Amino acid sequence: MDAAEKLLIAFFVLSAFVALVFFVVARSTLLTVQPQAEASRFGYAIHGRWFAFLLLGLLGTFLASLPFFPYMRTAAALQPALRVPVEAWQFLFIMPDQFPVNQRIIFEVKTPDVTHGFGIYAPDGQLIAQTQAMPDYVNYLDVTFQKPGRYFVRCLEFCGMGHPIMQKEITVGEAGAGSGLPSLAAIGSNGVVTHE
Ligand SMILES: [Cu+2]
Question: Which of 59, 87, 125, 170 could make a disulfide contact with 94, Cβ separation 3.0–4.6 Å?
Fold first, then answer.
């Protein structure tokens, strides 16, 4: 069964259900009319219980779903970060070209001339993160490279004649001695990797 057939069946089931609800409501109007006092007494009797039921139900659902909220993951992601300054110029990026894998990196993106884009493309060509480089402003981009390989940084904002060639190749690999990649131990207490 393809997606269109599944959709059609879902539509028919839902339509049948809606029609049934209409039918039940229409039938209920055929009952003998109750006096107002009796109807209100019955209504007030269920309305307190209905409130308690909803309150407990919502509270229970909230507590049960709490572990699935992303807050815990966000807290776990707040590991120490490398802070890496990036300067976007017409028409190049001044920044280191080697980065460690599985390491939280905060790019501090700025520009001395015009607005540029700062987009990071994974080896498979997917855009994984992006922000703008804006004059008189620093944009922070929090990135953790998940796999090693050749990445590209590209400008995503038309910034002049050289815009189409404005890109930089960066390498993501394992950090550590001899790899040429900065490691947390190697970058000092201020957490800043500066380019040469
Ligand atoms: Cu550009």
Answer: 87
What residue ranges of the chain are covered by domains with CATH 2.60.40.420? 80-187
Residue 128 Cα to ligand 1 midpoint, Å, equals 18
Q: Does the domain at residues 80-187 carry the CATH identifier 3.40.630.30?
A: no
How many A from CA of 122 to the centre of ligand 1?
A: 19
pLDDT in tens, 37-49: 888 888 888 888 8
Q: Report the amino acid identity of residue 146.
A: Q
pLDDT in tens, 137-171: 999 999 999 999 999 999 999 999 999 999 999 99
